[in-house]
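By convention, each integer encodes one residue's backbone shape. The lines below illustrate.
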Amino acid sequence: MQEKIIILDFGSQTTQLIGRRVRELNMYCEIVPYNKFPYDDQSVIGVILSGSPFSVYDEKAFKTNLDGIIGRLPVLGICYGAQFIAYTHGGKVEPADTREYGRAHLKWVDEQNPLMKGIKPNSQVWMSHGDTITTLPSDFKIIASTDKVAVAAYQANNEKLWGVQFHPEVYHTTDGIQILKNFVVDICGGKQDWSASSFIESTVAQLKQQLGDDKVVLGLSGGVDSSVAAVLLNKAIGNNLTCIFVDHGMLRKNEFANVLRDYEVLGLNVIGVDASAKFFKELAGVTEPERKRKIIGKGFIDVFDAEAHKIKDVKWLAQGTIYPDCIESLSITGTTIKSHHNVGGLPEKMNLKLCEPLRLLFKDEVRAVGRELGMPEHLITRHPFPGPGLAVRILGDITPEKVQILQDADDIFIQGLRDWNLYDKVWQAGVILLPVQSVGVMGDERTYERAVALRAVTSTDAMTADWAHLPYEFLAETSNKIINKVRGVNRVTYDISSKPPATIEWE
């Protein structure tokens, strides 16, 4: 039985980051809503309570009964989680004089406490709270303080119950991973046996049992998630898996042929479908971004469904859904957002059972599994690419001519990133074709042609992103190549907007 840590999600934006940090310790964990603790699961060895957008004394605050957890399992509360534990045990939580957000340093640490082992005074932590614990319950003790926060961390006397008012999961808490390790490994007794190889071994065995001799279809996108899912399924059921790769005409330059060749090398049974004419026809004259997405989404379902029906006795639809897609996250209103499917509507339309072999993995773990499976590095490290493809990087209506212009410009940009060893330093990159024309001069002639914007960002999870500070020399070279080689473009700009307030894609 795979031992696990349960993370109770009280609606924090960093809940998934807690999960990722625990997984980095080779410990399996699951994130569940704050009020859905799996009491019957005997494999749980510890519990972490996340932060929250609420104050513990708000009427709408997320609250749950911890009586069946505290005393039975080790518990660690983070930020709101720490305040909630203290508040429900008779302590006092009040609004701070000033909201504390940003870096702080521990001025005192009880280095003998098991949670604080290896943590020295002056260690940097990250605070993000408007409330503070002003009075601890009588049977609790302080184990760390900062200049402004007396109760930066605490433990209940004679109980395996801790709380920290800072965020050990974020990068800015320099010893945060050590604190989490102290809890997960030393206090909870985690064996640290969760790894890519153990996941592959157990998942292949489960897939063989789940699928038997049934036939499975999987929609490939060329991206990391669907590719790793396909190789994993192929390892389990071989030729009973059929992959369908649909070209909607908005892929990158030569991507359809290149991806099919990669899949052939991997030994996958793949059907490639060039449906670009259908999509161009249906997108003609459409400028609104959401309509573009819906047309492409519906079109993909129609093409995929038609191809899948040519295969006899298919019983399963496989998808490359990963863990962040599946987590039931909570909005500040308390509304539960249900897990979603990569290709909405397909399981119902096709009357197939759903198989999602990667649904327990974060993106970095998917890549680790891909490497363990021996997949080519260029497939594993591919940047994220929107499902509608270049359709949402062409502002305005879609035409084959515009797609070709964008493909050529995009190819120069992406290949340049590779040539300059910048590709792996960037989370995502691409070119946007703008709905404007500008005056230029080429040779001795006046031109009035299109403008494009280069977009490259750095990020860890795409929730936030900063524009990539690429070398001026690289940008100059890329601009010159695009203007000289891509007919119809005479101006190149660089997008220096961060997320927020902007988004990574323009549409």
Notes: The radius of gyration is 26 Å.
